[in-house]
Amino acid sequence: MTRNPLETIMGALVLLVAAVFLVFAYTTADLRQVKGYPVSAHFMKVGGLSVGGDVRLAGIQVGSVTGQTLDPETFEAVVTMNVLEDVRLPRDTRAVITSDGLLGGSYVKLIPGSAEDTLAPGDTLERTEDYQSLEDLVGEIIFLATQPAGAGGD
Question: Taking every annotated instance into account, which residue ranges of this chain make up the domain Mce/MlaD (predicted)?
Fold first, then answer.
């Protein structure tokens, strides 16, 4: 059984195009972790946040998630992240885990405060808001809709 030389050339060409595509995708995708100073934050729920996920300020990536651990005393998720050196965050900055749309992944959204002093490397963000999934939001809406009128509970 002999092979057609045209099939061999076409197979090599397909492999070459695939290799060029992989090199292009790796060099253009920003998959590297941000180099900067480390900060951490404690959350009750992280909702699918993964290591390597974005840390954004005003919608712009200023850092990346470098790790997640569980605090054995409080049972909270401890998220560590690196923030760019030139981004000096006020001490009262808030960290919120949010979703990038219905089908997007989760990321850490930073909301800067107004404090004069800034976070030092290794500091912990004290003000955090946990991830709120779509299921949680729908559950709250159903709960509010099924409450009798005037039963606000206040």
Answer: 35-113
Least confident of 27-31, 43-47, 91-95, 106-110: 27-31
pLDDT value at position 16? 92
- Tell me if the pTM is above 0.85: no
Sheet of 77-83: strand order equals: 124-125, 37-43, 77-83, 60-70, 54-57, 106-111, 94-99, 127-129
Q: Which residue has the tokens 């200023």?
A: 62
pLDDT for the residue numbered 29: 62
- Domain spans, the chain: 1-28, 37-133
Nearest Cα to Cα of residue 91 among 66, 116, 57: 116
* C-alpha distance across the termini of the chain, in Å: 85
How many other CB atoms are found less than 10 A from the CB of residue 109?
Answer: 19
